[in-house]
Amino acid sequence: MTRTPVNVTVTGAAGQIGYALLFRIASGHLLGADVPVNLRLLEIPQGLKAAEGVAMELDDCAFPLLRDITITDQANVAFDGANVALLVGARPRTAGMERGDLLSANGGIFGPQGKAINANAADDIKVLVVGNPANTNALIAQRNAPDVPAERFTAMTRLDHNRAVAQLAKKAGVTVEDVKKVTIWGNHSATQYPDLFHAEISGKAAFDAVGGDQEWVENFFIPKVAKRGAEIIEVRGASSAASAANAAIDHVYTWVNGTPAGDWTSMGIVSDGSYGVPEGLISSFPVTTKDGKFEIVQGLDLSEFDRKRIDASVGELAEERDAVQELGLI
Ligand code: NAD
Ligand code: LMR
Questions:
Q1: Is a pLDDT exceeding 70 seen at residue 1?
Q2: Which of 150, 194, 211, 275 is deepest in the core (most CB within 10 A)?
Q3: Which CATH number is associated with domain 6-155?
Q4: pLDDT, tens digit, 9 for 90 and up, residues 13-36
Q5: Which Gene3D superfamilies match (predicted)?
Q6: CATH of domain 158-320
């Protein structure tokens, strides 16, 4: 039986993450090796020519699963019938820009895109926001799409999750598959809390498996993961692109196809008030996924150490929400 193609919209398609992402979507890594896709590429006018060049390269790959490519600078066209939307294009912070300026500039992008999703996307739309500040951009888009169930808007913390898994595997001298139940709590920013205290390595408590070294956790592991984005910018001379694209693929694939038994993942999702995170904020939680839906992992005991760090990151999210509220963006 021939399957109906899934419409996948990617914004910022001509950017560096777009370039690392589109070929993997078209080759079946986003949704599965038997799922045909139509790509809808949204760019600003200045990015259209480069997006056309990327589309030419996609053609040249002769991907069996790629059915159709649309390139546009019109959000209503890009989100028409969208089943999956990856919102990558965002306004980067430039010299002299305050956080309020950045939130305001991105509000001008994610507000209209939320509205266009509300008006045009398919009923089963799933949205992942990658463009920074990802959690608050996702909040802006979600609040501008009142007819779409709030849980369909998510923000990417999977890159942080993958970074934490890799650091733990390295420290314990095991493979990444031996590391389970890592959590990123809070914001995709330097305040995030990468939590190893509920994680397992080869079936044992991760903390014990990395030597029970609290000093290493506080002064190496947590800052290493939370500041990895800045470290990549410093060392590579550009922000992470292939690893960010890989994490976006992982996020959507896991959302659609489920978490493996005995493990969970991290996603920025609309809080239902779990773990004291104010309802409505888009914050990262430990989640399990099944049949295209996710649930927050419940019942984890939080120590004072955990609580303090979660509260700090969630406090930052609340400040960002208040700022975009004051700007009239939500
Ligand atoms: P980039 O500058 O290479 O590409 C961004 C693209 O978006 C450009 O082609 C630009 O023309 C386009 N664009 C800008 N405004 C747009 C709009 N309104 N509609 C459609 N397209 C638009 O940047 P990049 O390296 O690809 O990164 C993209 C974003 O992802 C940045 O905000 C970056 O900070 C963020 N990021 C997030 C994570 C994460 O883990 N959440 C990780 C890495 C990067
Ligand atoms: C990352 O985590 O690599 C990015 O969010 C960094 C950035 O500021 O683009």
A1: no
A2: 194
A3: 3.40.50.720
A4: 999 999 999 999 999 999 999 999
A5: Lactate dehydrogenase/glycoside hydrolase, family 4, C-terminal, NAD(P)-binding Rossmann-like Domain
A6: 3.90.110.10
ipTM: 0.99
Phi-psi region of 122 (alpha: psi -120 to 50; beta: other; left: phi over 0): beta
Is any atom of ligand 1 closer than 6 Å to the C-beta of 276? no
Q: Indicate yes or no: pTM above 0.95.
A: yes
Q: Which residues of 283-322 are buried (b: 16+ CB within 10 A; e: fewer)?
A: bbbbbbbeeeebbbbeebebeeebeebbbebbebbeebbe
Query: What phi and psi values does residue 155 have, to the nearest 5 degrees?
Result: -120, 150
In the chain, what are the domain boundaries?
6-155, 158-320
- Residue of 29, 188, 198, 251 with catalytic role: 188
Q: Which ligand is nearest to the CA of 231?
A: 2
Give the C-alpha separation, 157 to 188, whole Å.
Answer: 6
**47 a known binding residue?**
no
Instruction: Of 84, 22, 82, 78, give the one whose Cα is nearest residue 55.
Output: 22
Among 233, 236, 243, which is best to mutate for testing ligand 2, by the most ligand atoms less than 8 A from CB?
Answer: 233
pLDDT score, position 97: 78
The conformational region for residue 81 under phi > 0 = left, psi -120 to 50 = alpha, else beta, is left
Is 16 touching ligand 2 by the criterion CB < 6 Å?
no
Please give the pLDDT value at position 330.
92
Decide whether 6-155 matches 158-320 in CATH topology: no
For ligand 2, atom 2, the nearest C-alpha belongs to: 229
